[in-house]
Design brief:
Blueprint: H1 2-12, H2 16-56, E1 59-62, H3 66-69, H4 79-90, E2 95-106, E3 111-119, H5 121-127, E4 134-137, E5 147-151, H6 152-158, E6 165-171, E7 177-188, H7 193-198, E8 199-203, H8 204-210, E9 219-222, H9 230-240, E10 248-251, H10 252-255, H11 257-295, H12 297-305, H13 310-346, H14 353-359, H15 372-389, H16 391-396, H17 402-407
Parallel strand pairs: 3-8, 5-7
Antiparallel strand pairs: 1-9, 1-10, 2-3, 2-6, 2-9, 4-7, 5-8, 6-7
Helix pairs in contact: 1-13, 2-11, 2-13, 2-15, 11-15, 13-15
């Protein structure tokens, strides 16, 4: 076996430029795959995290059926106290109680139907980015004050500004008439028109008084430190819920199923492009090995006449390809790891991304996520395809006749 390896190694360096060009193609593709797949997974984590932190949260405690029906009577009793106990038990302030209702909001000129959320002003900042998106005025402060924060699109539609009064009309938890007059103290701009024109926030205590909630609410929003910690956090929260109430804990996938579908669609498009890159490298290897076999036709004819079987020659060609592929894999993985590790510390930013990121309250830099999967998936696929591309040159030796091969020049 050692002799065969030495022979394969010698054959590779008969034409060092051609070998290095082919190995360089594999190395380059491996570096690109390691970096781009790592960057892609890092962007997915950032996209998921920022989408959830904008309003939904990583987890929500709700009454059974509320996620699908969102009826006023499907409530969590004494929600503020439960949120306080969860904060204490989890040792985290990333827990906030909310109430939700649909109401008609009216200014002097116009009226629109919106979703009104009652929030805890002191803790909503920890589970939502909306408090950090205020472009005029301030966020809510007093838990019982008759004040409201609305989106920029809704403010334009209602033709109101800071200090103006709005009238809220809705239906209470018990079916009674709910009405209140509130002052606009803040206007936010999330960059998402659906949120800016359809959501408003008021203090939770005021919400409970207006909609006759008797201390109840509809959801407790919880954020995890990282997305990978969500399953364990979900288990912990489920164990902490009071046994007297039938409550459920939904994770982000159940709350926003479309988010994972969007990621899968993006992955399909990206992997299609990666596949094209791998196929191009495979054809490069096929061309190199086929040229190598054709150049040695006379030599192969002589050794076959001496008794060497086509199978052993084919395995020699495959071994040459494997050595070349392993060189590309190891060097590509090494350089890809170094490149990815650098940007995982200092971040990677697309030109012109900073202005857009600031508008959406997002970081301007992406950080690749280096893991065994992102490190090895691309190079291993490239290696497998290079070995597949060498099958034709190796099998071609089975059709070679020694006499005709020795006549080749």
């Amino acid at each position: 076996m050692y002799l065969v390896f030495r022979l394969a190694w010698r054959n590779l360096w008969r034409h060092p430029k051609r070998t290095w060009l082919t190995t360089g193609a594999m190395l380059f593709s491996n570096v690109i795959l390691v970096f781009m797949i790592s960057l892609q997974f890092g962007m997915y984590d950032l996209m998921i995290d920022n989408s959830l932190r904008s309003f939904t949260g990583h987890l929500q405690v709700q009454a059974p059926g509320y996620k699908d029906d969102q009826k006023m009577r499907q409530t969590v009793a004494d929600i503020a106290s439960l949120a306080t106990s969860l904060r204490a038990a989890l040792g985290s302030d990333d827990v906030a109680a909310r109430g939700a209702a649909f109401a008609l909001v009216s200014s002097e000129d116009r009226s629109y139907g919106i979703a009104v959320y009652g929030v805890e002003p002191g803790y909503e900042t920890n589970v939502s980015t909306i408090p950090g998106l205020i472009i005029a005025g301030r966020y809510l402060r007093d838990a019982a004050a008759a004040e409201i924060v609305i989106g920029a699109a809704l403010a334009r539609n209602l033709r109101v500004g800071l200090g103006d009064e709005l009238t809220l009309l809705g239906s209470g938890r018990d079916g009674s008439f709910a009405a209140a007059i509130v002052n606009v103290v803040g206007i936010f701009d999330s960059g998402l028109a659906d949120i800016d024109r359809s959501i408003a926030e008021i203090p939770l205590d005021f919400f409970q008084d207006m909609f006759h909630m008797e201390g109840a609410g509809h959801e407790i929003v919880i954020n995890a430190p990282i997305i990978d910690a969500v399953p364990e956090l979900q288990r912990q929260v489920g164990a902490l819920l009071p046994s007297g109430q039938e409550l459920v804990v939904h994770d982000w996938d159940a709350l926003l199923p479309g988010l994972k579908q969007a990621i899968r669609a993006d992955m399909s498009g990206a992997f299609f492009m990666y596949g094209i890159l791998v196929i191009l490298v495979a054809f490069s290897v096929l061309n190199t090995q086929l040229m190598s076999v054709l150049e040695r036709t006379h030599e192969f004819g002589i050794v076959m006449a001496l008794g060497l079987t086509p199978g052993r020659l084919g395995r020699l060609v495959l071994l040459e390809t494997a050595i070349m592929g392993l060189l590309g894999l190891l060097l590509g993985a090494l350089l890809g790891t170094l490149l990815t590790a650098y940007f995982s510390v200092y971040g990677f930013a697309y030109p012109g991304m900073q202005e857009m990121a600031e508008k959406f309250n997002l970081p301007a830099e992406f950080f690749p996520q280096l893991s065994p999967l992102t490190l090895l998936a691309g190079p291993i696929v490239v290696f497998l395809f290079t070995m597949l591309s060498a099958l034709y040159p190796a099998l071609r030796l089975h059709w070679l006749h020694p006499v005709e091969a020795m006549r080749a020049v």
